[in-house]
Specification:
heterodimer; A: about 290 residues; alpha+beta; Transferase(Phosphotransferase), domain 1; 2 domains; five-stranded antiparallel beta sheet; 10 helices; 9 strands; about 35% helix; globular; B: about 375 residues; alpha/beta; TIM Barrel; eight-stranded parallel barrel; two-stranded antiparallel sheet; 13 helices
Chain lengths: ~290, ~375
């Protein structure tokens, strides 16, 4: 695997020097930003996100605005947002807590979660989801890679609001696009079909449902036996409904709430976050 | 929940008719009554225990249908020139909420217009109005209702039904006032099975999500809406209060339903003119429920005396509406049995010697067959 080149490395180093933090190198990079590790003098670690030049777009402004509006124990907090001049160019950077416990993706790769763990994870994610919904935001990218842990054994934290939709503002997605933004494997039908009027918190509910299903069963719930993931995504887009084997398995595992979370239409899912949380917790009482 | 009275022109007498006391609520009409009259109606209805009064601001066609509306403070003075933008709607919602508080109604429906077309954007606007109303009424005892106007022919497509249900269920309001706009003239029964299934599916989807649906402007097809799970259905005195069509705005404001007397016959789920009633009665096809209807006797006495019984016909139907709703609700009657029996009775009407042809060519019971279809097929309408 090629070693990624961090073009913003000098900028990140300069920011760390100015803040008195120790520079720890690059962690990840995306289309709009690069992320670096920074360590404070007290030893606590931070994720330093530097936006690429010219990428302080409306999209990234909305990401920052969304993070500022959210304040919840299961959502990664934005600690600082500022502009920084480097070699005559202005860069925007963000500081967040560094999640040392890795991602849910890492955990699933080392083994599927048992029922008890997936119930606890669901409770944490639904609480975060309810908070995001209350702020009239739609995260649109709930997936194991965006669910992180501050420490091993800690609670799940939701991060990466890069494609957040603010329902109080005009959509930034062009109506003529075939799919809307999102990660297809976890996306709801309305996201895959770019049905903008149907995007609301229930779109995230679908993605959380897929995430929980994958974490426990290891397979996309719309995937029929003998099919691949792309076919499962096609089934989601066509609103075929979850596979019979998933319905059977989730019922047997006493996790029927996931079935409703991943229903084909938003109207068939839980209408209110509190109802979802209530029903999820009823499952927790079932042994 | 009991049946609701859809108030229209000159409906006050029926609202307070002792024989129609089974109605548990009324959808008030600022279109037909000025503020003082509606205030008086509410005051008088307050003595009835648990009686629900719903204030529908009736802005469906504000440019053309005005009548008493200009007498209301919430009615926009700039309706002919307005852009209907967010700011305009926000002011209307605030004023409607204020009017409801002043009146002291049980509930108030969010403002809605009848659009030229029904894109997603229209439903999002309805939700925005509903959510604004919910905010405006916080801290008051008045319940907000989310008005939903749907074009019934569009509901023949299952995906459209679920799209609309998905948008409407975004509303923070847990009660909906559902208005089906259709092309079928008020006198005729709804008979397109796909549209009926779509309407039923929409109701059942909203109810399943915890949004209680009151179907406004309904007629005998109330049987289907109740089967789909509708919490309430409302009907009124005239045919144009039992069906919502664009043509209603073209009708003269005075009459509303013509001056012919109609008997509603449960055994056929049909409105019968006088000669039809007499011939159906001869064949022994008048149901026990119809004969027990307290307004039936006066109609049957009026006929030999050549007395007009139009007004008794209104009462006879409204009594049936509230009574059948009650029987459907408490399980004394099932929609399948009711529609199935009507289908069988229409077969007897056709096969009798001689066959019995109703005065109106279209009064042939053909809709009953479609209702049977809708009843069995709607759970699979997806």
């Amino acid at each position: 695997m090629p070693v990624p080149t961090y073009t913003l490395d000098p900028v990140a180093r300069a920011i760390c020097a100015a803040l008195g933090h120790q520079f720890g190198g690059g962690i990840s990079q995306g289309a709009f930003k690069e992320t670096f590790l920074a360590t404070k003098t007290d030893g606590s670690k931070l994720a330093l996100k530097v936006l690429r030049q010219g990428c302080s777009t409306e999209r990234s402004e909305r990401e920052v605005d969304a993070m500022k509006r959210c304040a919840h124990p299961n959502i990664i907090a934005l600690l600082e947002l500022a502009d920084f001049d480097h070699a005559g160019t202005k860069y925007t950077y963000l500081l967040e807590s560094f999640m040392e416990g890795g991602t849910l993706d890492d955990r699933i790769k080392s083994g599927l979660l048992n029922r008890q763990d997936v119930l606890a994870l669901g409770d944490e994610l639904i609480r975060a989801l309810a908070h995001i919904a209350e702020k009239e935001l739609v995260h649109r990218d709930f997936k194991p890679a965006n669910i992180l842990y501050a420490a091993a054994g800690g609670e799940a934290m939701v991060g990466d609001f890069g494609i957040v939709r603010d329902l109080r503002k005009e959509s930034l997605t062009k109506s003529y696009l075939l799919p809307g933004p999102g990660t297809p494997f976890f996306a709801a039908p309305e996201q895959l079909n770019n049905e903008k009027a149907l995007i609301d918190w229930r779109t995230d509910q679908f993605a959380v449902g897929i995430t929980l299903a994958v974490a426990h069963f290891g397979v996309h719930p719309y995937r029929e036996p003998g099919e691949d993931d792309n076919q499962a995504i096609g089934r989601v887009a066509s609103r075929n409904g979850p596979s019979a084997s998933f319905i059977q398995a989730s019922s047997a595992a006493k996790l029927p709430v996931i079935q409703k979370m991943i229903a084909r239409w938003p109207a068939e899912r839980f209408r209110l976050p509190n109802s979802l949380l209530e029903e999820w917790r009823k499952q927790m009482d079932v042994t | 929940m009991p049946a609701f009275h859809q108030i229209g022109h000159n409906s006050e007498n029926l609202l307070f008719d002792e024989g129609l006391s089974r109605f548990g609520g009324a959808i008030l009409s600022p279109l037909n009554y000025a503020p003082a009259a509606v205030t008086a109606q509410i005051e008088r209805l307050r003595s009835r225990e648990n009686f629900v009064t719903i204030f529908d601001p009736h802005l469906y066609r504000p440019q053309s249908e005005r009548m008493c509306l200009p007498e209301w403070d919430y009615y926009p003075r700039d309706v002919d020139t307005a852009d209907f933008d967010e700011q305009w709607w926000a002011a209307i919602v605030e004023n409607v909420a204020r009017a409801a508080v002043t009146l002291g109604t049980t509930a108030v429906a969010s403002p809605a217009i009848i659009p030229r077309a029904f894109p997603d954007e229209f439903f999002l606007q309805l939700i925005a109005n509903g959510n604004r109303l919910e905010t405006a009424l916080r801290g008051t005892a008045i319940r907000p209702m989310q008005t939903v106007v749907v074009n019934l022919p569009e509901l023949a497509a299952p995906a459209r039904v679920m799209t609309i249900a998905s948008i409407i269920s975004r509303s923070r309001i847990s009660e909906c006032l559902l208005v089906f706009l259709g092309n079928v003239e008020p006198r005729r029964e709804l008979a397109d099975p796909e549209e009926l299934k779509g309407g039923m599916r929409l109701i059942s989807s909203l109810e399943a999500g915890g949004q209680h649906v009151t179907v406004a402007f309904s007629s005998s097809e109330m049987v289907l809406w109740k089967e789909a799970g509708a919490t309430n259905c409302a009907s009124g005195k005239f045919f144009n209060l039992r069906r919502f069509t664009i043509s209603r705005f073209d009708e003269p404001s005075g009459g509303g339903g013509g001056q012919l007397g109609y008997w509603f016959e449960e055994a056929l789920l049909s409105f019968l003119r006088q000669s039809d009633l007499l011939r159906v009665r001869e064949r022994g096809l008048v149901s026990a429920a119809s004969l027990e209807n307290p307004f039936a006797t006066s109609i049957l006495e009026a006929i030999p005396a050549n007395a007009a019984w139009v007004a008794q016909g209104w009462r006879q139907f409204l009594y049936w509406f509230a009574d059948a709703e009650l029987r459907l609700r408490n399980g004394a009657l099932s929609a399948q049995d009711l529609v199935g029996a009507a289908d069988a009775n229409w077969a007897m009407v056709e096969r009798g010697t001689p066959p019995l042809y109703m005065e109106e060519r279209q009064n042939d019971g053909s809709w009953v067959r479609q209702w049977r279809r809708a009843l069995v097929e709607f759970p699979y309408f997806r």
